[in-house]
Amino acid sequence: MESLAESRERGCHVIGRAWRGMAAHLSSGRVNLTALREAGRRELREFLDKCAGSKAIVWDEYLTGPFGLIAQYSLLKEHEVEKMFTLKAGRLPPADVKNIIFFVRPRLELMDIIAENVLSEDRVRSPLRDFHILFVPRRSLLCEQRLKDQGVLGSFIHREQYSLDLIPFDGDLLSMESESAFKECYLENDQTSLYHAAKGLMTLQALYGTIPQIFGKGDCARHVANMMIRMKREFPGGQNSIFPVFDTLLLLDRNVDLLSPLATQLTYEGLIDEIYGIQNTYVKLPPEKFLPKKQGEGGKDLPTEPKKLQLNSAEELYAEIRDKNFNAVGSVLSKKAKIISAAFEERHHAKTVGEIKQFVSQLPHMQAARSSLANHTSIAELIKDITTSEDFFDNLTVEQEFMSGIDTDKVNNYTEDCIAQKHPLIKILRLVCLQSVCNSGLKQKVLDHYKREILQTYGYEHILTLNNLEKAGLLKLQTSSRNNYPTIRKTMRLWMDDVNEQNPNDISYVYSGYAPLSVRLAQLLARPGWRSIEEVLKILPGPHFEERQQLPTGLQKKRQQGENRITLVFFLGGVTYAEIAALRFLSQMEDGGTEYVIATTKLINGTNWIKSLMEKLEPPPF
Amino acid sequence: MAPGALLLEAQREYEKESQKADEYLREIKDQNLLSEAVRQCIEAAGYEHEPETQKSLLRAASFGKCFLDKFPPESFVRTCRDLRVLNAIWDYQIGIPLTFAQYKQLTIEVLLDRLVLRRLYPLAIRICEYLRLSEFQGVSRILAHWACYKVQQKDKSDEEVAHAINQKLGDTPGISYSEIAARAYDCGRTELAIKLLEYEPRSGEQVPLLLKMKKSQLALNKAIESGDTDLVYTVVLHLKNELNRGTFFMTLQKQPVALSLYRQFCKHQELETLKDLYNQDDDHQELGNFHVHSSYSSEKRIEGRVAALQNAVDEYYKAKNEFAAKATEDQIKLLRMQRRLQDDLDKPYVDYSLHDTVYGLILDGNHKRAEHLYRDFRVPDKRFWWLKIGALAEREDWEEMEKFSKSKKSPIGYLPFVEICMKHHNRHEARKYAARVTPEQRVKAHILVGELDQAADAAIEHKNETEMNLVLSKCTAATDSSVAEKINRAKAQSLKK
Description:
Shape of chain A: globular
Largest sheet of chain A: 7 strands, mixed
Pfam families (chain B): Vps16_C, Vps16_N
Number of strands of chain A: 15
Helix content of chain A: 40-55%
Radius of gyration of chain B: 49 Å
Helix content of chain B: over 70%
Oligomer: heterodimer
Number of helices of chain B: 31
Number of helices of chain A: 24
Strand content of chain B: under 5%
Organism (chain B): Chelydra serpentina
Strand content of chain A: 5-15%
Domain Vps16 N-terminal (chain B): 1-78
Membrane topology (chain B): Peripheral membrane protein
Shape of chain B: elongated
Structural class of chain B: mainly alpha
GO molecular function, one term (chain B): actin binding
Distance between the termini of chain B: 132 Å
Number of strands of chain B: 0
């Protein structure tokens, strides 16, 4: 599906390449998320069949990535989708189809483009085509009013919604991929994405049973829980008769833990995301390291297109190393290399026909394992080049000093030097925000100094970005004379000096020392319960609460001895891969007693998170 | 005699405890007509109006069935049920003389409709319950009809009616309170409609009706309660058209959620309104931001942009945001200077950051002007030094760099000099500065310029294991074996101690 974006880049308008996307990885976890994907596919097929005849889809470009995780192009083709275009202003490209379907998010600016498309349709020359519109994830009266004002509402035969709220990314991971959720919730007080989150949770409950216990921390969490309870009342009598799969739902506001996304993630997957950015499970990498090594002549035409790989647990090796601290990845890779080459060596020992046959039957699996190993060895090399650089080390040292509470109250030399050398602005903002969070705000003098340095070096136009960061609480003035962070750090054991990266015994391995606050909250909730940390909960922003949803007597769970509880942790405002790794680590703990499924509004890292809060002011052209 | 009639006789004799019962029964059975006889009795019961006769016929059928192995029970059960319904409507108080055949033709749904039209709600509901019809088809539908009738009763107060309706309907599935409310509104009972809407759990249904009834404020509350922002937007834009601007703003003032959403809307659609909103709130910080924004997006000429920024300064001061005000004043000053530079030097300077402007000036050898800006904007020394050596290195003006390095003691030390020279591949210059770095940085500096031997000496002198290892890691076996040896020897020695 990503091919949509690519083909547009090449200036070509129509997409022909098939989407990839198998679903095996979705059924690997404790909760089979294939059912959710299936429900999504069914809904899509039903809609497509409503528009009888050949079709062309006009895509809101942002949707193509997430859609690719639900349905391949082949599914659309089976339902007579012949062409696909990117939504853009002007006239629609010619297509000999009966139906034109717009797949769009409910946004006013998109409505204007659609109206332009429809109005410029050449009624005389081209044959009459039927228009339809599919809102993702929800129909909007506001948008329909806009279409009406533009005089095109009547042109649409079907106006429907496709509730693509929670998209399954992996066997234990759901995301709404709502880019601006954090900004909208915490900066603009626009809770639209929370409404979608609540709707998504209702869909999830319809498929996997009512979740009997809801815990939460933060204002947004409270709001989502309220909406869920309300929505349940909207369907009285529709008693859910499905045996509940989840025992607990934990709703967490991102602003309860602003620290974790700012720190550099040190797991394998986290670093891939930090350095190259993972989008809808795909990553694009510099191609040089992926050249076939054997051919001597192949070197002449260097590939210029980045190497694109899908990353999920369907790949055995990746599932094993993704959540490890990067320092523990090398040894796994070399161990694997030995096993694989030993396995290939087997062929010399295969004497009988039976043995040879056995060997040959394993070949495809072995070859897949070998190419997977080759890919990850290349990626690990790419990452290692960066993690062994002096600057990476210096940056990490400063981050760790801040997180362990060293010199958080004065201007940091390294940060200052980075500004003076005009390092990327986002890096600077991450450092300054991290320091501010670790100090419960900065003193006026320190804060003003940083701000002045940033404006003078990177330009005055960033003044609004700084203001946004202040509004979001990432950057703030220390108001009380007391710095609360040390209390939180000590009570929640956020900083662990004796971290074991190779064979971790605590979640702090994901940041090589810092245990993500958000995940600690989940861990402490499971055992011994939040009552043990009442004091800290009071310091963290927003209310904490517990709700129970009544189950009919027949559906109450009787646990088998030793059977783990399942908790769904929903991060409102985004979650990082390192936090996910930490939760997976807790799931796998032998006497943990709880397994986690993770949901979020968006998969984030410090860079794209800060970016989403930046205000782009560009000077007018001359 | 028909077998059915004979069966009826047999049952009567049986009740009298007469052996004739057996006789008659055998007679039917011998002709293999018993199931036919049962069937006849059941059918006959349907045509009878007198419950007593119906009963004796059904009793006969039941009696006959006892002697049959496989007689399907449905027809018997169905007839019993239907007769019960028919007997109920044949009652003189109801008086619907429908025959069994007519009833079958009409279907139960139509019969229920007729009962509803005659407002015989309790009976209709009993029938539904008795026939176990699904709630959607049966009870809910009738209750809804009842409620719609109830709202037309003008003799009762709104409270009474609403209460009565809720009492009966409760949370029965399939009931749409909004439909009932719509009926009440049609009958001119707006207050009642509002009361009824209170019971409607689906806000999506409440809000449009409330808007229709011109209860926009209430609609706004309901929309906000629902959390559905699209609904809130709908009401807000409705209010905008309905109210005059002042009242509209006042209304939003009371609803922070709606206000923030409307702000978002304005940000994309009506910038001027946004300004008015901030003005009304005396939100000087946001007003300042607004002016900054417009200085970038809507003003083209420098004068216009400066004027917008000047407005921002005023607002920031009112907001007591000293920092932003000062920064903006600086920006105005910078813009003006950049314009002058642009005119004087015939090069683009406007809209570069202060850093880039100074950098550009040094790059062009305009050291005086650079110096002037640096002082004027009170750039910290450290940053200026970083900046200046970077630009000088790019210009490859090594002479000027050396002069600068000697102008006073470097606030950033001399390692950055070494680094920047090496970055521009000038080992010769780098060596000059390597000699000047502080002792702690000496090892690093020597490594940078490729003097491993000196680096080793320095490390050994410091007796610093980490430094020694660092040097060792840079050694290649082929060329630096003597250095490596030296370090290893030193390490061994320090171990002995």
